[in-house]
Amino acid sequence: MKYLCNMKKLNISKETIGEMIRFSIVGVLVTAIHYGVYWLLQLVMNVNIAWTAGYIAGFIFNYYMSAYYIFRKKTSAKNGAGFGVAHIVNYLLQMALLNFFIWIGLSAEMAPVGVYAVSIPVNFLLVRFVFKKMDGTGTSREMSEG
């Protein structure tokens, strides 16, 4: 409860708090898919290829869950393209961080912890921008619209 009171002091709306909670739930699922595929494949192939395969495995699930569950918006070509661009940025950030953390000595199994610690908050901001600002009017189309 104290946390929610502090959120009010920061002027964060109930809607944004809800989005952050839903983002966290979906994020756990997507991260589990991503890391599971990565962990299995990195045992038998290059970590960069394994990481990419895991990233792709979670991407489509993530898009639909982001649209319909997190931000409660309709999917469209515009927000799909924006989501794709946001995830290209996120993917490149993750690849750079993965290789950096391995380079400084973290194991291939543990490096993703650092990657996720940095990239998840960045990804939330990018994806929220896509679903809130991509229709040219300042907000995306709501689910209830035809």
Q: Order of helices and strands, N to C?
A: HHHHH
Ends distance:
38 Å
Shape: globular
Radius of gyration: 17 Å
- Indicate the structural class: mainly alpha
Uncertain ranges: 137-146
Overall mean pLDDT stands at 86
Q: Summarize the amount of helix as a percent range.
A: over 70%
- Assembly type of the shown chains? single chain
DSSP strand (E) fraction?
under 5%
Number of helices: 5
**Quick one: biggest sheet?**
none
**Number of DSSP E strands:** 0
Written description of the protein model:
It contains five helices and no strands. The chain is globular. The longest helix is centred in the N-terminal third of the chain and has 29 residues, at 14-42. Helix content is 76%, strand content 0%. The N and C termini lie far apart (38 Å). Mean pLDDT is 86; it is low at 137-146. It has 146 residues and is an all-alpha fold.
